[in-house]
Design goal:
With about 700 residues, the chain is an alpha/beta fold. It folds into four domains: about 190 residues, Jelly Rolls, CATH 2.60.120; about 140 residues, Leucine-rich repeat, LRR (right-handed beta-alpha superhelix) (Alpha-Beta Horseshoe), CATH 3.80.10.10; about 110 residues, Phosphorylase Kinase, domain 1; about 160 residues, Transferase(Phosphotransferase) domain 1 (Transferase(Phosphotransferase), domain 1, Orthogonal Bundle), CATH 1.10.510. The protein is built from 13 helices and 36 strands. The strands form ten sheets. Strands 13-14-16-18-20-22 form a six-stranded mixed sheet, covered by helices on one side. It has a five-stranded mixed sheet with strand order 2-1-12-6-9, with no helix packed on it. Strands 15-17-19-21-23 form a five-stranded parallel sheet, with no helix packed on it. Strand 29 and strand 30 form a beta hairpin. Helix 9 packs antiparallel against helix 11. The longest helix is centred in the middle third of the chain and has 34 residues. The two termini are about 55 Å apart.
């Protein structure tokens, strides 16, 4: 039994009945299964079907008395019904129930015929007829008959003599017709032979259709993906076929026969040990995502993977040289191996410019002769030092001029890259127009569809829409934020966010790359943050190991700097209004950047607060903001305090289980601090590794 992986499948009752081994035909099971088309009890004494407990195997035998369209019509004249209470010997392969074999129909005028429609036919079928002599015949009486079916002459020639075939009366004889081609209307007749004194008899019949089994996934592919399952604690847990019916979440499959695995996506699935050598047998593979795991060792031979076009191996512990075949794979378009420990010379084919190749943070990996490389590196460092001294001198000269500025303002210069398109004009009260000085990097909808594979990989969902992963032509990875319903927010909300983001440049704020305003769609394009959100790592189990204390401090510092820049580095200042762990993103180096300014508002220079409808997230809202509906900069500070408590404790801001119905993380922590119990606030993974005084 197999339940689908989508939706909400459920079972009310599941009863299992053991089958006698002789009842299960295995001569075709690799290619077909048998589906019951008809199972009929002839001569039944009532309309009720015979089933469990009369049939211990819980088969359902329909009564021939049931009247429905095109079911057992065309009955020959002279057909009568007979039955007995004597026991019937049913010791054959099929073991039909005794109750079924105690009834029968008899053709008293030499012929016994019927016609019935078969659902889902024409098709090939396996048919069984069940005969048992349940009349006491005289010494010189015989019952012999033949099947009259011109389309299957081989079976029509056989004479049925129940007494001889079954070795006596009240004993079952069950001839089978193994592979019969049937139309959707089945007409059959049994006719007595000339030397027979009695007409034909039939107790029951069964027709089972051959149904072809969908081709199973290529065996070599199954072997490889099963090795990955063994190496991972987080892959598809069941034993079903990777491609047939519902594919595993970790694979994409081709539509060929047999299906082949064309994509493996095991990003951040705790895959450990070495990449299996058998991977080289997956010739149909086009994409391989193994980033963010615990893989070790060298790269195996993958030279047979001629269809491979995308490989993600970053953030692992892989070592050794890069094999030369990587530079000659004919369809390879992108290779990402950053944050590993590869060493040696990079194959020249990877440096041709035809392949997007990222190998950052592999200190022992170099482009050519290592001594030559070190010489160039030394010279470069020397030049860099000289340039740095010149730069510092320039800074000293400019220092006095900069001190004259009363307050640092946001950078209002908008850099035009590639094709550009002006944004719609929009003004902010006294602040004037933000959108009329230059243009932003405009990305067409068609480019975004191509970059995101038609928005196929969703990586997040916010209050204003979904976020999708994409990769531009130049290899730059992007996060594409689509507005759920542009008409409901108006163009004003979209333009507000673009205007804000274009004016803000800080290392701890997520940078805006571009935007799209096309076909009633408002889309923002950000730099892709490889390590997701802080919430993912604290509460969703993204981290392969717990965040250590220094990592948490660094994240808190980064987020604080981002918020400080919004509050004091911009004029007018910006209040975020929805500071929370899911709005703090982590880049490939686990450095934090504050995101989502869609809820931000500009605070005019002469105002200390903004009056507004309460927005934000439960658990992070400043009680004063909630009560007064006036938002202050300190409202962001309150929310940031909640984030810090999450970093220290590893707990969610609101939890009925942890804090009870009327408490949140702030109330809980305050009560423990008042008792002097700081240790109970700390994440258990930090206890013993961090001095309490530092908390």
């Amino acid at each position: 039994m197999c339940c689908a992986t989508t939706g909400s499948p459920f079972i009310s009752t599941l009863e299992l009945r053991p089958l006698n081994v002789s009842m299960y035909a295995m001569d075709f099971e690799d290619d077909f299964f048998l589906k019951v088309a008809a199972r009929i009890n002839f001569g039944a004494t009532s309309k009720d079907a015979v089933r469990y407990p009369d049939d211990p195997y819980d088969r359902i035998w329909d009564s021939d008395i049931i009247k429905r369209q095109n079911f057992l019509v065309g009955v020959a004249p002279g057909t009568i019904r007979i039955n007995t209470i004597k026991n019937i010997d049913i010791q054959t392969r099929e073991y039909p129930p005794v109750k079924v074999m105690q009834t029968a129909v008899v053709g008293t005028k030499q012929v016994l015929s019927y016609r019935l429609n078969l659902e889902d036919f024409p098709a090939n079928a396996r048919t069984y007829a069940y005969f048992a002599e349940i009349q006491d015949l005289g010494k010189n009486e015989t019952r012999k008959f033949k099947l009259e079916q011109p389309y299957i002459p081989d079976y029509s020639n056989a004479v049925v003599n129940i007494a001889e075939n079954a070795n006596g009366s009240y004993t079952l004889y069950e001839p089978s017709y193994m592979n019969v081609s049937m139309d959707f209307v089945l007409s059959f007749s049994f006719a007595k032979t000339r030397d027979s004194t009695q007409g034909p008899l039939l107790n029951a019949m069964k027709i089972r259709k051959y149904v072809e089994i969908a081709s199973k996934t290529d065996k070599e592919d199954v072997n490889v993906i099963n090795v990955f399952r063994y190496l991972s604690s987080d892959t598809d847990p069941n034993n079903r076929d990777p491609c047939v019916l519902t594919p595993w979440e970790s694979v994409n499959c081709s539509e060929t026969t047999p299906p082949r695995i064309i994509k493996i996506n095991l990003s951040r699935r705790n895959v450990k040990d070495e990449i299996p050598q058998e991977l080289n047998n997956m010739e149909a593979l086009t994409e391989l995502w193994l980033d963010g795991n615990l893989l070790i060792g060298t790269l195996p031979d993958m030279s047979n993977l001629i269809n491979l076009n995308l490989v993600h191996l970053e953030i692992n512990k892989l070592t050794g040289p890069l094999p030369s075949y990587l530079g000659s794979l004919p369809n390879l378009q992108a290779l990402f191996i950053q944050k590993n420990s590869f060493s040696g010379k990079i194959p020249t084919g990877l440096l041709s410019g035809k392949i997007i190749f990222n190998y950052d943070n592999n200190p022992e990996l170099h482009r050519g002769n290592k001594k030559h490389f070190q010489l160039i590196l030394g010279a470069s460092i020397g030049i860099l030092v000289i340039l740095l001294l010149l730069f510092l001198t320039s800074l000293l000269l400019m220092h006095n001029a900069r001190r004259k500025a009363s307050k640092q303002k946001c950078d209002e210069k908008v850099i035009s890259r590639g094709s550009t398109k002006p944004l719609t004009g929009y003004s902010f009260g006294k602040g004037g127009t933000l959108m009329d000085e230059g243009t932003a990097y405009y990305i067409s909808l068609s480019e975004l569809k191509k970059a995101t594979n038609n928005f196929s990989r969703k990586i997040g969902k916010g209050s204003f829409g979904s976020v999708y992963y994409g990769r531009m032509k130049d290899g730059k990875e992007i996060a594409v934020k689509t507005m759920t319903d542009p008409s409901s927010h108006g163009n004003q909300q979209f333009v507000t966010e673009v205007a804000l983001l274009l004016r803000i440049h800080h290392r701890n704020l997520v940078p805006l790359i571009g935007y799209c305003e096309e076909e009633y769609q408002n889309i923002l394009v950000y730099e892709y943050m490889h390590n997701g959100t802080l919430r993912d790592h604290l509460h969703e189990g993204w981290s392969q190991k717990q965040l250590d204390w220094l990592a948490r401090l660094r994240i808190a510092e980064d987020a604080a700097k981002g918020l400080e820049y919004l509050h004091t580095g911009c004029n007018p200042s910006i209040i975020h209004r929805d500071v929370k762990t899911s709005n703090i993103l982590l880049d490939i180096n686990m450095r934090a950047k504050v995101s989502n300014f869609g809820l931000s508002r500009l605070a005019e220079e002469d105002l200390t607060h903004i009056s507004s409808v309460v927005r934000g997230t439960v658990g992070y809202l400043d009680p004063e903001y909630y009560a007064s509906q006036q938002i202050f900069k300190k409202s962001d500070v309150y929310s940031f305090r909640v984030v810090v408590l999450e970093l220290i404790s590893g707990r969610k801001p609101v939890s009925l289980e942890d804090y009870g119905p009327e408490m949140n993380i702030v109330h809980w922590a305050r009560s423990l601090i008042q008792k002097g119990d700081v240790v109970s606030i700390m994440d258990p993974s930090l206890v013993g590794n961090v001095k309490t005084e530092s908390v």
